[in-house]
Design goal:
heterodimer; A: alpha/beta; Alkaline Phosphatase, subunit A; 2 domains; nine-stranded mixed β-sheet; globular; disordered N terminus; B: mainly alpha; two-stranded antiparallel ribbon; 26 helices
Chain lengths: ~400, ~475
């Protein structure tokens, strides 16, 4: 892409104004006293858009049906397709070396077979449910994290410092009345390969002339950047560490936000998902790089940090005809950071045999993802179960916050 | 006739600037009536507060040019003093070289506040134009203006003066006439400083005029040729080189002021009798013996009602709005109306909008970059407040504002628009455009609202399967149903 274009367009109205105005507001805000030794927790939420395949990220290698369902993509305990050891039943994808170390240090936690209450398969609606915190699809324009900030005692430092939304637009999870600032790394916008593939696919079916032109244009572009062909995957693995680094630096400022949301695109791996290597491996490596970046930038503050990684739903248990997986139900959530009581995998494993699968195709959800989110908010930010059940995740009174997720 | 739903879709995209989510409700079932309703002279006008007139644009450019001339003069004097300063002893080749270097422009001159001022003025005009397009119910008047503005294009690249007068040119010479007589439009355009400067008419001097005999300079045929070839008769319209030359002679004296005249500043229209070639001229078999400026005007008026002009314009209009190979019956009807009404452009527009063949052809034309930009803004309700970014997007998509590659304007046919780089750039634009809309738009709902029954199963599915709302919106903007009209 043309460099001028990059700089001109993505820093759009909200991106610039949002960041500018928030910084302005900070400059005039009275210094908020931080008593020495008082708690100063940091909380990052990473949303993986497109539905991350939990069965590839944290593979149940000991499940007797796993290998057959996943064929060539399956991870193993040993050999060329070996994952990183976890607890014997599951292995971690080999791209996630930082998480593996943190897991060993008991700072990384995995929740498996988790899902929101949403049981359809639309990304938009799934992301809405994930971010609004509602039991189903509804027209609500605020997100659970914003409502959580509003629910904290007004005098507390953390809500006064506001929250950071990384990206051109504020993610739904952060929208609402609590103050939010925006920031985007310069090259965040350059993740168009997945869109290009989708448009090309549409043109191939509907408009051969446009398909020919676009294909030629994409090829010329690849040649210009020295690559042999369009990378097989969406997303931009290197961007994740850049975005995380930038966010972490803002969060390390004395008057900087303590809460941030990052969204990473590109997880909709319908084709050529790959196994040990490939498209999903690159994305998981990118996510792992984001963990490493936050840990590095935070230094001492890492001790009081929790990073929650969630996605709208999982993917089909069986791989499809194009070496990928389709929209499914339950998947993995990661919780990582110095404040996390890690080294554990929380999973009420439902199994992968025919009738054990949701609608005969998806990993069944045995943990409500809201229990994880509520558990983190309760343990890390100190929100009460009542507020969590009524205001932040309305109608979730019966979904108990998972206890002891953080120190 | 097509069913109302299909007619709406073709009407709003082919003849308008595209639908917004509420357009169907707002415009009612009869899109044709909504389009016809915009055939009113006032709908084509822009009365923007603070937009410069041609005279003001010229004044600003004159101030800039004056300042630059004085700076050049000052530099020249400094250089001369250096050259004739203390002797260096040996004929001073070194001193000469130094002087030469000083006189040459430095590597990176500081940003010129005046140039910035001119660019801001242009952006002010672009904003007024975009706002006009956003406010239009269907957008036919704006599309009709754009067609004529491109037909009678000028180009910013032609120099500083163009930056001052390009906006006023469209507002003052084109817009007031697009629903009037073609002859009036033609005269307004050809006598405007923007056109006279763009097509070199300023340099044209009658060889037998007083000025021509004194200066040994002569005719410049550019304007005369382009009027015949591009503005009226068209290539193959039945004119010869002799006609071009005679017409060029008739136009001598139509000029713009230079600094030497120092009357209204650099660039105002002037008829300079001392450059005018004396005597009658034979153009297309007719003799023109009028005095002065009247000679050129008489030829223009005859060209405006020439059968070749009717044929050329009818074909170009049908080609631009309906199809690269337009239905012959539509071209014939437009041509007949042009001749019958003596070039009444409102009547021509009515034929275009009501002829059965105008909507019978399925959507095949690709929206021009400007149409695409306007359609994207109208579809999403995105704020059009970052004009430099929008201007830049137009540059990158290949339709820089008032800066076409040549006097034949921007092309609008399939081979020109469906080019690899162009489509790739539209893809990039779509993603950049969709991203800040923040997922607040549900692209599935918007696709239904905008495209109705013409939304294909494949596009609907692709949008529904998109990974994010932003990606779904970008897919909608790139969909063939949105790109083609």
């Amino acid at each position: 892409m043309d460099a001028r274009y990059c700089q001109a367009m993505p820093l759009s109205r909200r991106g610039l104004l949002g960041a500018g105005l928030s910084f302005f507001a900070w400059a005039h805000m009275p210094k908020i006293a931080s008593a020495a030794g008082a708690k100063d927790p940091r909380f990052l939420t990473i949303i993986l858009r497109g539905a991350m395949d939990g069965l590839s990220a944290v593979a149940p290698v000991a499940d007797p049906d796993y290998a057959a369902l996943r064929e060539g993509m399956a991870l193993t305990r040993e050999g060329e397709s070996a994952g990183l050891p976890l607890d014997g039943f599951f292995v971690l994808h080999p791209s996630m070396k930082t998480f593996a170390r943190l897991y060993a240090e008991k700072k990384g936690l995995i929740v498996h077979a988790a899902a929101t209450p949403y049981r359809e398969r639309s990304h938009f609606d799934g992301q809405d449910v994930l971010e609004t915190g509602l039991p189903g699809v509804g027209k609500v324009e605020t997100g659970w994290l914003n409502r959580a900030l509003l629910a904290l005692p007004k005098g507390e430092r953390l809500p006064q410092l506001g929250a950071l939304g990384v990206g051109i637009s504020t993610p739904l999870v952060l929208r609402g009345e609590a103050p939010v600032m925006g920031w985007a790394p310069q090259r965040l916008a350059e993740t168009n390969d997945d869109l290009a593939r989708r448009v090309l696919d549409l043109y191939t079916h509907r408009d051969p002339a446009l398909a020919r032109a676009l294909k030629a244009g994409l090829t010329a572009d690849d040649l210009a950047r020295g690559g042999a062909a369009m990378p097989p995957g969406g997303g931009d693995p290197g961007m994740m560490a850049r975005a995380a680094t930038g966010a972490a630096r803002l969060m390390m400022k004395e008057e900087g936000p303590r809460v941030a949301v990052l969204s990473f695109d590109g997880w909709d791996t319908h084709a050529n998902q790959g196994g040990v290597r490939g498209r999903l491996a690159d994305l998981l490596g990118g996510l792992d790089g984001a963990f490493a970046a936050v840990e590095r930038e935070f230094g001492e503050a890492w001790k009081e940090t929790a990073i929650l990684v969630i996605t709208e739903f999982g993917r089909t248990a069986r791989i499809n005809g194009t070496e990928g997986s389709d929209h499914g139900t339950a998947t993995v959530a990661f919780l990582v950071g110095g404040a996390v009581r890690g080294g554990r995998i929380l999973a009420d494993w439902p199994g992968l045999r025919g009738p054990q699968l949701h609608e005969g195709r998806d990993l069944r959800a045995t943990t409500d993802l809201r229990a994880v989110m509520k558990g983190v908010l309760a343990g890390h930010l100190g929100l009460s179960p009542v507020v969590l059940g009524e205001t932040i995740f309305p109608g979730s009174g019966l979904v108990k916050p998972l206890p002891d997720l953080v120190v | 006739m097509a069913r109302p739903e299909k007619l709406f879709q073709i009407g709003i995209q082919r003849f308008g600037l595209g639908a917004g989510p509420a357009s169907r409700d707002m415009l009612g079932p009869d899109i044709r009536a909504a389009l016809l309703d915009e055939i009113r002279p006032d709908r084509a006008l822009i009365r923007g507060e603070g937009l410069p007139t041609t005279a003001r644009g010229i004044q600003i450019v004159t101030q800039i040019e004056d300042k630059r001339r004085m700076e050049r003069e000052a530099r020249r004097q400094v250089a001369q003093q250096a050259a004739s300063g203390p002797a260096t002893g040996d004929g001073a080749p070194g001193a000469m070289a130094t002087a030469g270097m000083q006189a040459s422009p430095s590597a990176s001159p500081p940003p010129d506040p005046e140039a910035v001022r001119l660019r801001d003025l242009l952006h002010l005009d672009l904003k007024a134009r975009i706002d006009q397009g956003l406010a239009a119910p269907a957008g036919f008047a704006e599309r009709w203006v754009m067609f004529w503005s491109n037909h009678f294009c000028i180009a910013l690249r032609r120099g500083q003066l163009m930056q001052g007068v390009a906006g006023p040119y469209e507002r003052e010479a084109i817009r007031p006439h697009v629903f009037g007589r073609f002859a009036d439009l033609l005269v307004a355009v050809e006598a405007h400083p923007a056109m006279l400067h763009y097509l070199d008419q300023r340099q044209s001097i009658g060889p037998n005029s007083p000025a021509g005999q004194r200066r040994q300079r002569g005719l410049n045929e550019n304007l005369a040729r382009e009027i015949l070839e591009l503005h009226t008769l068209g290539v193959g319209g039945g004119y010869s080189q002799a006609d071009v030359t005679a017409f060029a002679r008739a136009l001598t004296g139509w000029s713009i002021t230079g600094f030497e005249e120092n009357i209204d500043g650099y660039g105002a229209f002037v008829f300079a009798p001392n450059r005018h070639e004396p005597g009658p001229q034979q153009v297309l078999g007719r003799s023109y013996g009028q005095e002065g400026k009247e000679k050129g005007l008489a030829i223009l008026r005859d060209l405006a009602r020439h059968p070749s002009t009717a044929r050329f314009l009818a074909t170009k209009i049908a080609r631009h709005f309906v199809a690269d190979s337009p239905p012959p019956a539509l071209v014939g009807a437009l041509e007949a109306e042009f001749l019958k009404s003596d070039g009444d452009l409102a009547a021509l527009a009515r034929v275009l909008l009501t002829h059965p063949d105008s909507t019978r052809v399925p959507p095949g034309k690709i929206r021009t970059p400007y149409e695409f930009l306007m359609a994207s803004l109208r579809a999403t309700g995105a704020p059009a407040d970052r004009i430099p970014a929008l201007a830049n997007a137009l540059n990158l998509m290949g339709q820089p504002l008032w800066n076409p590659p040549g006097p034949n304007g921007f092309p609008d046919d399939e081979p020109a628009l469906v080019a690899p780089k162009a489509i790739k750039t539209r893809l990039e634009f779509s993603m950049q455009f969709a991203r800040p809309l923040g997922g607040r738009i549900d692209p599935r709902d918007l696709a239904e609202a905008l495209l109705g029954e013409s939304l294909s199963v494949e596009t609907r599915q692709a949008i529904a399967r998109a990974e994010t709302r932003q990606q779904g919106l970008a897919l909608l903007l790139m969909a063939p149903e949105f790109q083609r009209r």
